[in-house]
Amino acid sequence: MVGEFIRAAEKAIEKIYSWPRKRVSIYHHNDADGLCSGAILASAFQRKGYGVKRACLEKPYPAILEKIYRKQGEILIFADFAGRIAPLLSRLNQGRNLTIILDHHVAEEATDQMVYNLDPDLFGLKGDRDISASTTCYIFARTMDEYNIDLAHIGTLGAVGDGFFVQGRLVSENRQAALAAAGQGRLEIVAGADGEEYMLETAQGKISCAELGEYLDILGGAGYNSDGPDAGIEVCLKGPDADSDRVVEHLKRIKEDAFTLEIEKLKRGSLIQSPNIQWFNLERRFYPMGVKMVGVFCETLKEQQFIDPHKYIAGFQIIPDEIPGFGPVDMSQVKISMRVAEYLERQIRDRSAMGLDVLLPQATAELGGFSDACHSLTAATTLAIGLEEKLIGEMEKLITTFGK
């Protein structure tokens, strides 16, 4: 469990400290958990005197990874993704760089001794229950130097933003981070009838971590193509201010207008039905918002009356051929995000229905697509444009044979 994780982290940190170049490149996800992860790692390394280059990615796309791994002799850190693709990173790396993975999704072992996969899934901790990526990064940072315990509140913010609770409360390592933050006076844990609320101390007063997590999701998702992630990192470290408030309000209006228009289209018949899946294709209609927004939109649809609670929800969005921080990249890819309403959620938890962490990656693999970070109740992969209907068909086959 966490003791084994810490021992593995200590070995990776020892390797980092012995590395000849005192600089790191940090690649992190763009949701609240990923932004908090990036903020924690950037702070921890800067405190140790390292030069830090940071880039925010919606997914570690193979085309981007190929660009990254043209480097040699570097320290490369991946946060809130890449646990599953450790074998791919190993093949790309071939011992040329020191690679550290700090994820919390379902993971596979690395095959290159210079790739350290510190995904807690490999140490018996569940990423959709026990530990977020930000809490993983917080424990890693604290292992680097106990002084970094003061970053516990950022770990808690990311954990709450990811939304994995048991009976309305953070548990396991997520809870330990929250208790550490509360002990420092940076967080208040408020018990209620349905669980707990986590209130962060900021310059603007106490703010709910759930509310601030949504705030970060807007910056990282709706603002992905307009410097939103950089603003999100500042919010993680310093709290919101009047400038970030204005940016978020502007992005919220863009998001709400786009969501309203798309819901009306779905109500009028653009929601496609197969036996077990209800799905839609946004194509490029949500641009300039990031492709994370198809997942956020699926989350919104869970509560809509016209959605069938017995069917999986799936949405497609085309990935632009330009990635912030990397310039033009020939993608020709579409992202699929999936969610489930409460009825199917209960069935997945009871193991009487197929979890998304199995269903979507397996179907994607059949069509040569790319999978890295999937949970049982939330998942996303990518594949070539034009294969959308075939992917739905592959998933229908898997659903039909589940349990037989």
What does this structure look like?
The chain has helices at 2-18, 32-47, 62-68, 86-93, 133-144, 152-162, 172-183, 209-222, 228-238, 242-270, 293-301, 342-349, 356-366, 388-401, and strands spanning 23-28, 51-56, 75-79, 98-102, 115-117, 187-192, 195-202, 205-208, 272-273, 277-281, 312-318, 322-323, 327-328, 333-339, 370-374, 379-384. The chain is an alpha/beta fold and 404 residues long. It folds into 2 domains: 2-209, inorganic pyrophosphatase (n-terminal core) (Alpha-Beta Complex), CATH 3.90.1640; 271-401, Roll (Diaminopimelate Epimerase, Chain A, domain 1), CATH 3.10.310. The strands form 4 sheets. A 6-stranded mixed β-sheet has the order 9-10-11-14-16-15, sandwiched between helices. Strands 2-1-3-4-5 form a 5-stranded parallel β-sheet, sandwiched between helices. The protein has a 3-stranded antiparallel β-sheet with strand order 6-7-8. The protein is globular. The two termini are 33 Å apart. The mean pLDDT is 95.
Task: Summarize the structure in short.
The protein is of the alpha/beta class. It contains 14 helices and 16 strands.
CA-to-CA gap between the ends? 33 Å
Biggest sheet descriptor:
6 strands, mixed
Number of helices: 14
Helix content range of the residues, please?
Answer: 40-55%
Briefly note the CATH topology name of the largest domain: inorganic pyrophosphatase (n-terminal core)
Unreliable stretches (pLDDT < 50, length at least 5) are none
Shape category:
globular
Strand-and-helix sequence, N→C? HEHEHEHEEHHHEEEHHHEEHEEEEHHEEH
Number of domains: 2
Question: What kind of oligomer do you see?
Answer: single chain
* Average of pLDDT: 95
Strand content: 15-25%
CATH architecture of the largest domain: Alpha-Beta Complex
